[in-house]
Write a structure and sequence with these properties.
Distance between the termini: 34 Å
Low-confidence stretches: none
Number of domains: 2
CATH architecture of the largest domain: Alpha-Beta Barrel
Helix content: 55-70%
Strand content: 5-15%
CATH topology of the largest domain: TIM Barrel
Order of helices and strands: HHHHHEHEHHEHEHEHHEHEHEHH
Structural class: alpha/beta
Largest sheet: 8 strands, parallel
């Protein structure tokens, strides 16, 4: 039976010093008030253009981010590969709403795809659509509202860039993950993903859409997407996550007076996520699964479903993934057992990846038990290493 409690395997890639730093960081993250104060101070410092790298880079940045550039991130990729853990380098700059930033993001994503060429340790490439276009345009398209001539031109450029990214990924034979966004403009992206899969997924899943299973409609959408894949003769690539924008989604629904698209409870989300995995395993001839979760029960379920169906751990149609700096007990124990595992490794300049880092700190303080779980495992491994050292000295 696969266990996620072996800390020796989980933290083999971390030195004692790195583990002690991680212990301190997660101890701080266990205090929501400290996290909130820290975020406020850093936000003010960024607005005042004060230097923050000196405090952020050796601490929270080093825990969750690969580096400021692709080149800086390569040592992290190489280190993980020693333990059979692959990587996905994610340019995590977001919230930029001008054409220059969209061009820069597009160029950087192309570079990340080219960087993956001939690199066995990098098994997927990824991008965040809102790094390439203003969300107001996506919202209009999703709701069937007319675009101005200028907006139509920008939307056409956006679609052309996405097709170019898919083609570039196809050229280097690396599957491309298209991240999910807020529900009120996701439809435009779902439609584009369908078009790209029709073009690029005829033989295998090259393009993956992302389903946030905390949305009430995503199980039905999975079924609908599977039907489209059958109808148009392509392989459906799906990255399953629970979701990243729950509070924002609920607040907007309340403010504008429409039913919340988010599941009523965490149990409902868990059930939807697990049902999606079961549906996909039952239709594996037409669906490739990217299971992005830190939830041990969902991971164990997928492992169990694979075993029952006689699917080998290294079947390329199934990949497990966790974020860099989190849930190493899941990632490294899975990889040690022969499963396909890829760590999501964000990279980008310190000041531009702060929104991502803020989300990670919020996730660790809000997800019940997440920080304590990380902290307990790190403490266990440090204790194990001390005992081992003492035994060797006697």
């Amino acid at each position: 039976m696969l266990s996620f409690s072996d800390t020796q395997i989980a933290f083999a890639y971390r030195s004692n010093q790195e583990l002690r730093k991680a212990k301190f960081l997660f101890a701080v993250l266990s205090w929501p008030i400290l996290v909130k104060i820290g975020q406020i101070l850093i936000t003010i410092a960024i607005k005042l253009r004060l230097p923050i790298a000196w405090i952020v880079k050796p601490t929270i940045f080093k825990q969750f981010i690969g580096g400021e550039t692709l080149v800086e991130s390569i040592p992290v990729v190489r280190n993980l590969k020693k333990y059979n853990v692959n990587s996905i380098l994610d340019y995590s700059v977001e919230g930029q709403e001008n054409e220059e930033s969209h061009r820069n993001a597009y160029s950087e994503i192309l570079r990340s795809i080219e960087n993956a060429k001939g690199a066995p340790a990098i098994t997927f490439v990824v991008f965040k659509p809102t790094g390439l276009i203003n969300v107001c345009i996506l919202e209009k398209v999703s709701n069937g509202k007319p675009l101005s001539d200028e907006e139509q031109q920008k939307y056409s450029i956006f679609k052309e860039r996405i097709e170019n990214l898919c083609q570039a990924a196809s050229d280097v034979d690396k599957p491309l993950l298209i991240d999910a966004e807020d529900s009120w403009y996701q439809k435009a992206l779902d439609d584009i993903c369908h078009e790209m899969m029709k073009k690029f997924n005829s033989n295998k899943a090259l393009v993956y859409n992302t389903l946030q299973m905390y949305r009430k409609d995503r199980l039905d959408f999975l079924n609908y997407s599977h039907g489209l894949a059958i109808e148009y003769g392509y392989i459906l690539g799906i990255k399953f996550v629970r979701g990243a924008y729950m509070e924002k989604e609920r607040e907007r629904a309340l403010k504008l007076g429409y039913p919340s698209p988010i599941q009523n409870s965490k149990v409902d989300t868990d059930n939807a996520f697990n049902a999606a995995l079961e549906f996909s395993i039952n239709n594996l001839n037409r669906i490739s699964i990217f299971c992005g979760t830190h939830n041990e029960e969902s991971v164990k379920l997928l492992v169990s479903l694979m075993e029952k169906s006689g699917i080998k751990p290294n079947d390329l149609r199934i990949t497990f993934s966790q974020l860099y700096g989190m849930s190493d007990n899941i990632s490294f124990n899975l990889a040690n057992a022969g499963y396909n595992v890829a760590k999501y490794i964000p990279y980008g300049p310190v000041k531009f990846v702060m929104p991502y880092l803020f989300r990670r700190t919020q996730e660790n303080t809000s997800v019940k038990g997440q920080t304590n779980r990380e902290l307990i495992l790190i403490k266990q491994e440090l204790k194990r290493r001390r005992h081992q050292l003492n035994s060797q000295n006697h």
